[in-house]
Amino acid sequence: QVQLVESGGGLVQPGGSLRLSCTASGRTFSTSAMGWFRQAPGKEREFVAAISWSGGRTDYADSVKGRFTISRDNAKNTVYLQMNSLKPEDTAVYYCAADFRPSPLLVSRSKHEYDYWGQGTQVTVSS
Residue range 80-95: average pLDDT? Predict the structure, then answer.
């Protein structure tokens, strides 16, 4: 079993920045690809970013490319999402997720490939 706990959400003005963190426990973190997803009210949960085991591969949704950065610290069992130049349309609950398929270079955009999910953290971008 794996527990994922997100933190760092909040209210920020358009153009501002936030850094989300997701800390894992219960299983070897360094052998999981990690992803960030988000879900706005009335919408499907959508892919935001993903990172491979060692951090050597990353992938981003087009809507956040150039503004968001995913990173990880395996010594701290933590994955981060640095969000810059935030827009009102980034408002959503943000979830981290872990994918334990045995492939060190794997990054996936499909929520169905992820085995474990955190409880989510709210990000609101508003003036």
Answer: 98
